[in-house]
Automatic annotation (TrEMBL):
Renumbered residue ranges of the record's region Disordered: 99-120
The protein's name: Uncharacterized protein
Species of the source: Trypanosoma theileri
Superkingdom to which the source organism belongs: Eukaryota
Length: 120
C-alpha cells in the first residue's frame, strides 16, 4: 500500500512537472510573439525616423541651394531628429539585449525543469 501511494505520488509529481514544462513552453512562445510585435513596431518607427531625417536633409540641401545659406532653425530640427533617431537605435539595442537575456533565462529554466523531469 505504501509503495502504491509512493508511486501515485511520483506520478502526480511527474504530471505536475510536465504541466509546468508545458506552461513554460507556452510562456516562451507568447513572449516570442510579443517581442516580435515590439521589434516590428520599433523597426517601423526607425524607418519612419530615417525617412523623416532624409527628407529634412533634402529640404536643407534645397534651402542651401536656393538661399545660399543654411537656416539655423532647420539645422536645429535636423540635429534634433538625428538625436532622436540615435536614441531610438539605442533603445532597440537595449530591447534586443533584454530579449536575448530573457530568452536565455527561459531556456535555462526549461532545461532545469526537463532535467528534473528526467531524474524522476
Amino acid at each position: 500500500v505504501a509503495a502504491v501511494n509512493a508511486l501515485q505520488s511520483m506520478k502526480a509529481e511527474l504530471e505536475g512537472q510536465r504541466q509546468r514544462i508545458h506552461e513554460l513552453e507556452d510562456l516562451v512562445s507568447q513572449f516570442n510573439v510579443d517581442m516580435s510585435g515590439v521589434m516590428s513596431l520599433i523597426g517601423e518607427r526607425f524607418r519612419g525616423c530615417d525617412e523623416l531625417v532624409n527628407l529634412k536633409l533634402r529640404e536643407l540641401n534645397f534651402s542651401l541651394i536656393l538661399q545660399g545659406s543654411a537656416d539655423d532653425e532647420m539645422l536645429q530640427h535636423v540635429e534634433k531628429l538625428k538625436t532622436e533617431n540615435d536614441q531610438l537605435r539605442e533603445e532597440l539595442r537595449t530591447l534586443q539585449e533584454v530579449h536575448s537575456e530573457e530568452m536565455e533565462e527561459l531556456a535555462r529554466e526549461a532545461a532545469d525543469r526537463i532535467a528534473e523531469h528526467d531524474e524522476l
